[in-house]
């Protein structure tokens, strides 16, 4: 399944990314583990979990209607600073089945669960530059995070028993304060 649908700006990682973010955007391993290795204290701040309206490409990727999905949004913090806004989406019919662990994950990092299960396969990463008009950029600003320009994001599908979970990670300005 492709993450770069016609009409969207999600692309395979390429050289057009800013060099300081290239490693963050292209590393296929656990983002949680990478951040933990570069700070003294890592935490997950849950923002919202529940039914959410999705962009058309998100709904298509998880196989449900735009108004039917369940999403989880969190801030990943390194030494108290928000460094990543994470937005995960799953089809609600999978919450009591293959993606049951999505319910009640709370302040635990979702990545720790995803990378610990050998039955979960990850798609290649897709990246995008988000300007102020993008819904995820607006959500970041709504959390009171100062953003003066575009933000970079990556996303991938995690597949378990043929069922998708879409994870999008938006890199916040403070990520540049961590070693690459």
Automatic annotation (TrEMBL):
Pfam family for this entry, one: Chor_lyase
EC code: 4.1.3.40
Catalytic activity: chorismate = 4-hydroxybenzoate + pyruvate
Any one GO MF annotation of this record: chorismate lyase activity
Main location: cytoplasm
Enzyme class: lyase
Keyword annotations of the record: Cytoplasm, Lyase, Pyruvate, Ubiquinone biosynthesis
A single BP term in Gene Ontology: ubiquinone biosynthetic process
UniProt keyword annotation of GTP-binding present: no
Biological pathway: Cofactor biosynthesis; ubiquinone biosynthesis
Transmembrane regions: none
Compartmental location: Cytoplasm
SUPFAM superfamilies, alphabetized: Chorismate lyase-like
GO annotations of cellular component type: cytosol
Function of the protein: Removes the pyruvyl group from chorismate, with concomitant aromatization of the ring, to provide 4-hydroxybenzoate (4HB) for the ubiquinone pathway.
Family: Belongs to the UbiC family.
Protein name: Probable chorismate pyruvate-lyase
């Amino acid at each position: 399944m492709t993450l770069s649908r016609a009409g969207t700006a999600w692309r395979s990682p390429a050289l057009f990314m800013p060099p300081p973010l290239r490693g963050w955007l292209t590393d296929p391993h656990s983002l949680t583990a990478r951040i933990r290795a570069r700070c003294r204290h890592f935490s997950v701040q849950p923002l919202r979990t529940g039914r959410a309206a999705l962009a058309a490409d998100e709904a298509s990727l998880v196989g449900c209607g735009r108004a039917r999905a369940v999403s989880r949004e969190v801030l990943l913090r390194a030494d108290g600073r928000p460094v990543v806004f994470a937005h995960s989406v799953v089809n609600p019919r999978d919450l009591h089945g293959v993606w049951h662990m999505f319910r009640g994950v709370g302040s635990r990092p979702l990545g720790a669960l995803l990378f610990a299960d050998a039955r979960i396969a990850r798609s290649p990463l897709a990246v995008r530059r988000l300007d102020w008009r993008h819904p995820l950029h607006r959500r970041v600003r709504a959390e009171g995070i100062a953003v003066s320009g575009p933000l970079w994001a990556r996303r991938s599908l995690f597949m378990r028993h043929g069922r998708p979970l879409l994870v999008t990670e938006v890199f916040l300005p403070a990520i540049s304060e961590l070693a690459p």
